[in-house]
Amino acid sequence: MRAAFFLGPGKMEVRDVEIPRVEDGEILIKVAACAICGTDVRIFQHGHSHVVPPQITGHEIAGEIVEVGKGVEGYRVGDKVVVITVISCGRCSYCRKGLQNLCPEQKYIGYDYPGGFAEYMKMPRKGVEHGNLLVLPADADLLEASLVEPLSCVVNGQSYLNIGLGETVLVIGAGPIGCMHVAMARNHGAGKIFLADISEERLQLAQRIGADLYINSAQENLKEVVLRATDGLGVNVAIVAASSGSAQEQALELLAPQGRMSLFGGLPKDKPTITFNSNIVHYKEIGVFGVFASHASQYEEAAKLIYTQRVKAKDLITHVLPLEKVVEGIDLVKTGKALKAVVSMEK
Ligand SMILES: [Zn+2]
Ligand SMILES: [Zn+2]
User: Fold this and answer.
1) What CATH number corresponds to the domain at position 51?
2) Angle, helices 176-187/148-159, rounded to nearest 10 degrees
């Protein structure tokens, strides 16, 4: 099979290797599509503590089961599936609550285990036992399904925000995650939704998602625009879907009383500190929420949102590339020329 191996920062190579051999309790998946995540870009540029090269990365995976090992129950050859990335311990109190993403003993497909930038991948036994494959309806579109993982993270992020009917929402960061936040806020019944970014190119691509107001915060004063559009009150919810400390600081200042804020994007490891006016949080009764990855039930919700077209995955996918062009795809994501770029094994 062909597989793209990450060999170290800036180095990736498509190689011909044996199809993984399925042992007892394991499952072999024929990958149909693997979307490129911002994290794949960061791994490609800098490496990652969970990725030991040479490794096959890629974790936004949809495919079909082609072989099941001895003793596997509940999965069949021919099932269309989405891979659930986090394989957790299954025993800790977070796992018992179904919060696999908060388990202290996580391992990830596409990091610790070989991922989806390959024609085939194996779900390890522990993942099979923990239900790390979400079975889709037989008519599911697997290209669209590759967006279930990122959308599940957006579902998790908004689960903390309690977006109410008619509330105003500001999303900072018009990449694919920001666009999914716009679509999800709409599903929650938000009123006006503002989408801000410093890149005009990204804002242009994001037109298709139908925010109410697009703000180029490199050219316009974000605070002024938001206050003008909200009768001086600020927004009820602000979501920072960008790796920017200054965007986080700014978002806090744009919230109305009882506003909620999501720090959706992580900050660079060497610069994780921001200046935070805690009096705003105090006097305005602001809620500030972090979010990391997602848990299995949110994959299920995300899948339903996609195949009922409540979130239109096709609108978010701007580029479909063959495996040989994975580095090109990573570059398209990095430079913001793509909204969602997906590697398709059928290309
Ligand atoms: Zn991802
Ligand atoms: Zn656990």
Assistant:
1) 3.90.180.10
2) 60
pTM: 0.97
What's the 99 CA to ligand 2 centre distance in angstroms?
8
How far apart are the CA of 315 and the centre of ligand 1, in A?
18
CA of 305 to the centre of ligand 1 (A): 17
We report the CATH number of the domain holding residue 247 as 3.40.50.720
pLDDT in tens, 46-94: 999 999 999 999 999 999 999 999 999 999 999 999 999 999 999 999 9
Ligand (nearest to CA of 107): 2
Instruction: Domain of residue 229: give its range.
Output: 161-290
**Pair 81, 100 in one domain:** yes
* Ligand with the closest atom to the CA of 92: 2
Residues 63, 185 within the same domain: no
Ligand 2 centroid distance, CA of 160 (Å): 21
Residue 313 Cα to ligand 2 midpoint, Å, equals 31
Q: How many domains does the chain have?
A: 2
Cα(160) to ligand 1 centroid in Å equals: 19
Is the distance from CB of 64 to CB of 155 less than 8 angstroms? Answer: no
Do residues 174 and 245 share a domain? yes
CA 134 to ligand 2 centroid distance, Å: 19
Residue 347 has pLDDT above 90, yes or no: no
Burial class from Cβ neighbours inside 10 Å (0-12, 13-18, 19+) for residue 247 reads buried
Does pLDDT of 268 surpass 90?
no
Ligand approaching nearest to the C-alpha of 99 = 2
